[in-house]
Design brief:
The chain contains four helices and seven strands. The protein is α+β, with helices and mostly antiparallel strands and 158 residues long. The protein has a seven-stranded antiparallel sheet with strand order 1-7-6-5-4-3-2. Strand 4 and strand 5 form a beta hairpin.
């Protein structure tokens, strides 16, 4: 990856006190993603390579519509899908970005990594704006994911 692509990548990682099997439904199902993707009002996901991805919502007063395709589906370790923004006027990004969610077991916890890449393919001005928009959103979303998994694992304990 070149320097510009790396600079325009969004990368976050957290530790969650649960195994990958407990986290997988939150990152690889429409219902799970909808629970922690901030601003999303609708998520559709066909859980297989080549499956469609659709997300509609509002974030920061901006209504959005994202479409994409699942490129990696490796339960319970990794899922990746492309994302392309379609605006209300029908115009769209000139290229896709790629969202990859990876689960790596580490003893009693799981290292959850989010990589959102490909912004450099959007052109200079759009790349900077899109990158900045997603940069601020993913951190809080991952904290919400952690809270949801913690709530689930706590409620399932005797």
């Amino acid at each position: 990856m070149d320097d510009r692509a790396e600079k325009l990548s969004v990368r976050y990682a957290i530790e969650i006190e649960a195994g990958p099997e407990a986290i997988w439904p939150f990152i690889a199902t429409a219902e799970g993603l909808l629970a922690w993707f901030r601003g999303a009002e609708l998520v559709e996901l066909e859980p297989h390579v080549g499956g469609a991805y659709l997300e509609k919502g509002e974030h920061g007063g901006f209504a959005y519509h994202l479409v994409g395709e699942v490129t990696v589906y490796d339960p319970p370790h990794r899922i990746a899908f492309t994302l392309r923004l379609i605006r209300q006027d029908g115009s769209q990004w000139p290229a896709d970005t790629l969202l990859t969610l990876t689960l790596e077991p580490a003893g009693n916890t799981t290292h959850v990594r989010l990589d959102h890449t490909g912004f450099e393919t959007l052109g200079d001005d759009l790349a900077a704006r899109a990158h900045q928009g997603f940069l601020g959103g993913w951190d809080g979303s991952l904290e919400l994911l952690r809270q949801l998994v913690d709530d689930q694992t706590t409620s399932s304990q005797p």
